[in-house]
Amino acid sequence: MQRQATTGELLRDWRQRRRMTQLDLADSAGVSTRHVSFIETGRSLPSRSMLLKLGALLDVPLRERNTLMISAGYAPMYREHRLDEAEMSAAREAIERLLSAHEPYPALAVDRHWQLVTANRAAQALLAGLPESLLQPPLNVLRVSLHPQGLASRIDNLPEWRAHVFERLRHQYATTTDPQLAQLLAELQAYPGGEAPMAADARAAGGIVVPLRLRLDRTQVLSFLSTTTVFGTPRDITLAELAIESFFPADAQTAALLRAMAEPGD
């Protein structure tokens, strides 16, 4: 049976991932470097309040902060509710309002593994015609976008978009150490489509974003810029790991096409 990491080992790993020295962490926490060293080597067990402070300073995900608490013999600090539970009604309504208000532009909510939680009508319309096997729950939006039978065949700038997705996943894995993200990245990289550095599409958008160019037919292309919204100061693991992906038209033609697609009867 694999040995469980100690509290000190876990903290040292998170500190190194955040590229902080013991002195950096000690100064931020208002303690001595010697105290941080003693915690990491197991010579001193941090108090509950100190462990919470160190977890916050190291930006440890809430799920992993619970792991830290348990490793030190304390009760978990953060609860995890399903979105359909009564305690989450306010958050659930806020998510639905955000998605609805973004019409006629696509928006969707995803969990930490990029599985679809909910989507507005505009986002659902973009998935029309895809194989049912890809749309069965749990629907992974990155798999749907890069799978050769998914949206990949419609993405005009597929190599650039793949590179953008892979970079986001690498960063997310480095931040969370979630092994499922590493597995997802490996799966997506095995799909055909290549990778490319920033090209003309990104430069046309000012060089600061990578647009998603989605072809509707031979003459019509939707060009999107995307943003990510997360809940501020969440106290629940589900909310902390939930993100809302909103897509905005990158040009006037896209805005007009989306408004037309949203008209009744279309």
CA(first)-CA(last) distance: 58 Å
Largest sheet: 5 strands, antiparallel
Fraction of residues in β-strands: 5-15%
Shape by Cα distribution:
elongated
CATH-defined architecture of the largest domain: 2-Layer Sandwich
Proportion of residues in helical segments: 40-55%
Order of helices and strands: HHHHHHEEHHHHHHEEHEH
CATH top level of the largest domain is Alpha Beta
Strand count: 5
Query: Uncertain segments of ≥5 residues (pLDDT<50)?
Result: 202-206
Computed structural class: alpha+beta
Mean pLDDT: 92
Which properties best describe this structure?
266 residues; alpha+beta; 434 Repressor (Amino-terminal Domain); Beta-Lactamase; 2 domains; 5-stranded antiparallel β-sheet; 14 helices; 5 strands; MLTR_LBD; Lambda_DNA-bd_dom_sf; DNA binding; DNA-binding transcriptional regulator, XRE-family HTH domain
Spell out the blueprint of helices and strands.
Blueprint (H helix, E strand, L loop, with lengths): L6 H11 L4 H8 L3 H9 L6 H10 L4 H10 L17 H13 L5 E4 L5 E4 L1 H6 L5 H4 L5 H6 L11 H19 L2 H11 L10 H5 L7 E4 L5 E10 L6 H4 L2 E7 L2 H10 L5
Antiparallel strand pairs: 1-2, 1-5, 3-4, 4-5
Task: Please provide a written account of the structure.
With 266 residues, the chain is α+β, with helices and mostly antiparallel strands. It has 2 domains: 7-71, lambda repressor-like DNA-binding domains (434 Repressor (Amino-terminal Domain), Orthogonal Bundle), CATH 1.10.260.40; 86-261, Beta-Lactamase. The chain contains 14 helices and 5 strands. It has a 5-stranded antiparallel sheet.
Summarize the structure.
The chain has 266 residues and is of the alpha+beta class. The protein contains 14 helices and 5 strands. About 2% of the residues have low confidence.
